[in-house]
Amino acid sequence: MIALTLPALDPRVRWSIRIVDAVGAGILAEHEPYQQCETASVGKVFLLIEVARRLESGELDPDQRIAIPEEHRVADSGLLYRMRDQRVTVDDAALLVGAVSDNLATNALLALCGLDAVRAVAPGLGFADTSLHDFIRNERTPDLPWTPSYGTAAELAELMRRLGAGEVDSPAVSGRVLDWLAADTDTSMVADALLLDPLAHVEAEYQGMVLRHKTGSTSFARIDIGHLAGPSASVAYAVAANWKHSDDDLRAPVLDAMHAIGEELRAHVTGRRRDDEKLG
């Protein structure tokens, strides 16, 4: 199995990284894969799994209109809080979460499913150090849970490998989640180097690559987890970076490293090196 090379990582950053072969599950590269990080919006994948389960079982109707509890109205990430008509369906709310990490849609679906039920998804899949932990909040005060989600690269890469293999509950449940994630418009992190169209990569796009991923961002964190398939290979990856206790905003070196990792993944799954293409 071909090992991949990680770039130099800024030592001021708390990193957790793992890249695995999506078919054989062998480890291709890693750095502190069991180190737990705050993962911002990445834990929303567990909400999508719970929603997909309930849609498949018939407990939820995809055309049911969501209710948005007043105590969980939030802004920032997403589109729903800016829309004139917020009476979207369950299926469309899940799509908004997958496409633009929509905070308001997230909270509405969390209220619908119940926070405790969604918190139970990760441990139910065998993950001990990764979970969605709380609603999205406009302000996180000391009396609230410490983070909306947390996780390790080892568990998050395994989550994406299982989703890609159709092993999270069933191919139908896994497929629903991957379909929502296919619309993710945030290609600013690892996915930046793939050169995909950020708004249209549901089908195989540049160099035959198919990406399904979820990102998370805060003022001190960048996280990108995904399943990437190409003509030469398929991988599942998780790259998490936190710099909460730094006096500096380290997003620039973090994103540089993420882009370098993405380029390594692109070359691996396509079998094409960027330098060779330039020479050709």
Protein model, in words:
The protein has helices spanning 44-57, 90-100, 103-113, 115-119, 121-124, 153-164, 171-181, 251-270, 274-279; strands at residues 14-21, 27-31, 37-38, 131-132, 149-151, 210-218, 221-229, 234-242. Helices cover 34% and strands 17% of the residues. The protein has one domain: Beta-lactamase, CATH 3.40.710. It is built from 9 helices and 8 strands. It has 280 residues and is α+β, with helices and mostly antiparallel strands.
Concise description?
This protein is an alpha+beta fold and 280 residues long. The chain is 34% helix and 17% strand.
State the main characteristics.
280 residues, alpha+beta, Beta-lactamase, five-stranded antiparallel sheet, three-stranded antiparallel sheet, 9 helices, 8 strands, globular
